[in-house]
Write a structure and sequence with these properties.
mainly alpha, 2 domains, 4 helices, about 70% helix, about 0% strand, Ribbon-helix-helix protein CopG domain-containing protein
């Protein structure tokens, strides 16, 4: 856990209860679970940077077509993540 000052996040009781259960099953706390979640998801800027790096590694010129392919891949990943949560 970080050394930063604690804060609170408002959420529904159902979400709080689910977070508590998920944390308990993983042997951690809700705070640590949320920290892990926040660190595991990329921001749009981080996604864009990864797409640029991947294109460079593949020897591709970063064009709008490459950008769209990368965006499409992230959209599919997010869709599958949503399916896994259901």
């Amino acid at each position: 856990m970080s050394d930063s000052k604690p804060t609170s996040i408002k959420t529904s009781e159902a979400t709080r209860d689910r977070l508590r259960l998920l944390a308990q099953e993983r042997g951690t706390t809700i705070t640590e679970l949320l920290e892990e979640l926040a660190q595991s998801w990329l921001t749009r800027a981080e996604q864009e940077q990864r797409v640029r790096e991947a294109a460079a590694e593949l020897g591709l010129e970063y064009t709008e077509q490459v950008h769209q392919a990368g965006q499409s891949a992230w959209d599919k990943i997010r869709a599958h993540q949503g399916d896994a949560a259901a």
